[in-house]
Amino acid sequence: MSKTVTPAEPIKRAREPRGTGRRLYGAIAHKLGAAILAGEYLPGDVLSGEIVFAELLDVSRSAYREAIQVLTAKGLVESRPKAGTRVLPRNRWNLLDPEVLGWAFAGQPDVAFVRSLFELRAIVEPAAAALAAERRDKAALKSMRDALAGMTRHTLASEAGRMADRDFHNAILHATGNDALIVLSASVCAAVSWTTQFKHRQRDLPRNPIPDHRRVLDAIAASDPAAASEAMRVLVELALEDTRQSMQV
Question: Do residues 164 and 231 both lie within one domain?
Fold first, then answer.
């Protein structure tokens, strides 16, 4: 049975100052999206009307409406006249949207969801590394080497290092020359970035993952698809093991 819900306390405590424009409705969308991903609002729940939410969040009704439009576009809610705004079933959510991934990791991410991200990576990335070993050019190799150098220089404990890590995986997916895989790159790279950041919330990693990335790069540079696929498979498995130690996935 659905129920009507109002903003939870964590949202009200994290309230942003009043303002206008994209930054404001983006902040509201982040708060509500993170609350939905965290299970504070369940599928079938009907959100209180925009007047109630706007007053509790101390924002304009137009800013709240724009935030709801963002959530609607990502499949989290739907709004109907007289029926209000309802949280949609989880299978309607665009969970691979980079922004939705960010909302999922704003709090304590769902264990099953984190596991599913690694399963996706284990399917996609080894095959992508093999294709990259066959099709990469000098520019692609330079992008991978530059990203690996950035990871080494900054370490994955820093934002700069995690950005370099994302660039490394992005370069591999683009090196495949496969348009469908390239479309997935934003989602895969966001998953890489958020899971890495989450692992570092708890403690330092028990090992240095950069050599794992170097083995992938060496295999791609050597135009060895089988070795590249295997090196990437091991990289993803070890990353999952690191995450298990952080959250018992």
Answer: yes
